[in-house]
Automatic annotation (TrEMBL):
InterPro entries: CheY-like_superfamily, NreC/VraR/RcsB-like_REC, Sig_transdc_resp-reg_C-effctor, Sig_transdc_resp-reg_receiver, Tscrpt_reg_LuxR_C, WalR-like. The lineage of its organism: Bacteria, Bacillati, Actinomycetota, Actinomycetes, Kitasatosporales. The keyword Phosphoprotein applies. The modification 4-aspartylphosphate is found at residue 54. The keyword Transcription applies. Residues 149-214 form the HTH luxR-type domain. It comes from the Bacteria. Keywords: DNA-binding, Phosphoprotein, Transcription, Transcription regulation. This is Response regulator transcription factor. Residues 3-119 form the Response regulatory domain.
Amino acid sequence: MIRVVIADDEPLIRAGIRMILTSAPDIEVVAEAGNGREAVDLARAHTPDVMLLDIQMPVMDGLAALSELGRAAPEVRALILTTFGEKENVLRALGSGGAGFLLKDSAPGELIGAVRAAAAGDAYLSPGATRHVVDQLASGQGAARGEEARRRVAELSERERGVLALLGEGLSNADAGRRLHMSEATVKTYVSRILAKLGCENRVQAALLARDAGL
């Protein structure tokens, strides 16, 4: 079972998410938090596989909770819940080690798929917002960031760059394996090696680096 904690300050939102997730046979909601401090405490107490973390919460907001989670429960994969109006916060969250982001108005199947992807160690970038966020990055970072990204990527082998490019497209290990005619286990090995070489904490950071490098 994939064990999940839901962190959102709106009870109706939490109830809706719980209803969707518990309809999946492989997902269990083990706790709910109404603010960021509760989310961190529950992560320590329950060690869930995935946490759905709203950005706008009282006491401690989602971004602060994400940073705290990195120290208190680094094994927990945090999916950020967001809206289009929070683009800058999303970029900060991804840069702080979030496992991906999901729009609050996403379809139920997308929510379940995102939780499964995060639990499997894959990044999840909501199709409804990925391009918008990447465009924001591309328009605001300038040449210096792209040059630095290309310098770091140049240290990878040709095959590693190929895998990284597919991470930039948001592909899972299984989908990347099919594209490259490799087993999923082999792709996973490549991904681990790529993250280590690039100094990235997770697949999301690697995906953004791939975009910066123009892959």
